């Protein structure tokens, strides 16, 4: 995780978004120079004010625009998984961080996501994971959505990691997981069903939170 966080701030300096917004820059500057901004983030995250200052200094120094766009995000992931195709998974992960759905990740969104992934409770991490799998944001995970994410993870890992992987393996895994999660057999998985199934099955928990290992 730490390696990618460091790389994210390094790479954004090399590949800036083509259309930076002035208000984003002003907002980030306010967070940097106005104590109440850091106080608010400290209250909303599991980071101390000192940790936030360090995170922001690195983010701002390497990304003067104050935002990270999807192209930059995908570029970073491609370097970490040279034997596979990380573009699809990076797309979905980017959308999970981009809570305002405006096509860019601001410092606040970035640090809020990191706080959950690094120091959140088990439930908070599972809720974040559910949000990642819920592609269409309707509050449910369909078998198609879960298959899309799992297939993206396999594509990212590539043949180097899974030399004997067959094309139907992701579907088989999803079928098994979905059968355990969809308690009422209505064809979709709710947040509570997702959390309950993961808490009951340690292997499923590790599988569903695989993103933690590829962050």
TrEMBL record:
Among SUPFAM superfamilies, the record links this protein to: EF-hand (SSF47473)
Q: Which residues form the EF-hand domain?
A: 85-120, 121-156, 169-204
Keyword Membrane, does the record have it? yes
Q: Name one Pfam family in it.
A: EF-hand_8
Cell membrane listed as a keyword: yes
GO MF annotation, one:
potassium channel regulator activity
Q: Which GO terms describe its biological process?
A: regulation of potassium ion transmembrane transport
| PROSITE patterns assigned | EF_HAND_1, EF_HAND_2
List UniProt keywords, sorted A-Z: Calcium, Cell membrane, Ion channel, Ion transport, Membrane, Metal-binding, Potassium, Potassium channel, Potassium transport, Repeat, Transport, Voltage-gated channel
- InterPro entries in UniProt: EF-hand-dom_pair (IPR011992), EF_Hand_1_Ca_BS (IPR018247), EF_hand_dom (IPR002048), Recoverin (IPR028846)
**Principal place of residence:** membrane
Compartments where located: Cell membrane
Q: Which GO terms describe its cellular component?
A: voltage-gated potassium channel complex
Q: Which PANTHER family match?
A: CALCIUM BINDING PROTEINS, KV CHANNEL INTERACTING PROTEIN 1 B ISOFORM X1
Family, according to the entry, reads as follows: Belongs to the recoverin family.
Q: What is this protein called?
A: EF-hand domain-containing protein
